[in-house]
Amino acid sequence: MAFGWIDEQAELRRRAGLVRTLRPRPAATPLLDLASNDYLGLARHPEVTEGAARAARTWGGGATGSRLVTGTTELHAELERELAEFCGFEAALVFSSGYAANLAAVTALAPHGALVVSDAGNHASLIDGCRLARGTTQVVAHRDPDALRKALDGHEGPAVAVSDTVFSVDGDVAPLAALAEACREHGAGLVLDDAHGLGVLGDGGRGAPHAAGIAGADDVVVTVTLSKSLGSQGGAVLGPARVIGHLVNAARTFIFDTGLAPAAAGAALAALRLLRREPGRAARAAEVARELHARLTAAGLEAVRPDAAVVSVRAPSPEQAVRWAADCRTAGLSVGCFRPPSVPDGISRLRLTARADLSGAEIERAVRVIGETRP
């Protein structure tokens, strides 16, 4: 029978407690949201939603084609200029998603004969980029510059190191300056995914590479998403102009994909301008994360100290993690639930995202619910 193996896979997932289901949410909900990645609370901000609506009225509902045909509007170019300037890079290129941006950066910068050195904790989109690249990939220990050096030693030809800046599971930050130094010692490039750093780290939310002093370097390329701190959708690659020009000509997820919808570009641009005007939002998101961690650990829960806005709380098992998240939801709190294979270390977690717009009372409520529903 065609696809008969699917039933067997479904049963294995069920036994392991790893079944995933979609849960459509209404436009308005009484749930306290600590599950989304809306770090700055901008997804529903009036200026951001008006930016989306104005762009749709001006440019239409869709980009109408790939970026190289009809999918590049003046709005896309404006967003790229302002995003590059804000983050401290020479140029930027906007994609339809952060996932597509990561695939583009890794595959286009790792030609045949190249070595790609990938952190063991990297996001799935970076891992998939490594799988699709024509170079050879070597996975190294998490956040370990010496392991990176060892992998690069003796390699002749192009080489690139690939890493998240802020890892999405535990929210820990990579040693970016040390990674950049290791790459320079071997003439290698450095590709960094700053999806969880933009809007939270760096001066006014300019990102983890900016905070580490490596933004704008000619051997550093950074990818970002527009769907987290900027409350919109889409992604971008930031870097030297010659690298961006290469991506325009060589990145398949740019060449063969429809351009980002104007509404998403308009929303992201409005959010970026709002962040420029209100840089304190970035510091507040990090402050909320630290407060969540302090209160959770004081309550006897095992939580990982956050370096940015992600707070991870360990769960005893995948099944108990799912039940814990469901019990939180019943009690009015929405939290993330990370289980294998989404976690590289096999440890299941509740994943909380700190938002700049959370009040002290909401933080207290979240901690109380998590503590009262613990397995």
Structure description:
The chain is of the alpha/beta class and 375 residues long. Helix content is 42%, strand content 15%. It is built from 14 helices and twelve strands. It has helices spanning 5-16, 46-59, 74-87, 98-108, 124-132, 145-152, 176-185, 208-212, 241-250, 252-255, 262-277, 280-298, 318-330, 360-373; strands spanning 32-34, 91-95, 115-119, 136-140, 159-164, 189-193, 220-225, 235-239, 303-304, 310-314, 333-338, 349-353. The strands form two sheets. The protein has a seven-stranded mixed sheet, with helices on both faces. It has a five-stranded mixed sheet with strand order 1-11-12-10-9. Strand 3 (115-119), helix 5 (124-132) and strand 4 (136-140) form a beta-alpha-beta unit. Helix 2 (46-59) runs antiparallel to helix 11 and helix 6 packs parallel to helix 7 (176-185). The longest helix is centred in the C-terminal third of the chain and has 19 residues, at 280-298. The mean pLDDT is 96.
